Description:
2 helices; about 60 residues
Amino acid sequence: MDYNPFVIVPLATWAVAQVTKFTLSALKGDVNFRKLYASGGMPSVHAAVTTSLAVTALLIEGLE
């Protein structure tokens, strides 16, 4: 079964960024499970997903 890196990489990036956001918040004493799916805050999940998609496109398609 083939996989589409243009979908898999941003989804994996989203998951890692959301878990990182939750973990950093929990380490500061704010255990809020909403941070696992909510938008906003740092690290920026939107920026991480956008950057991962751009880098994936660059690595696969090149600079054409």
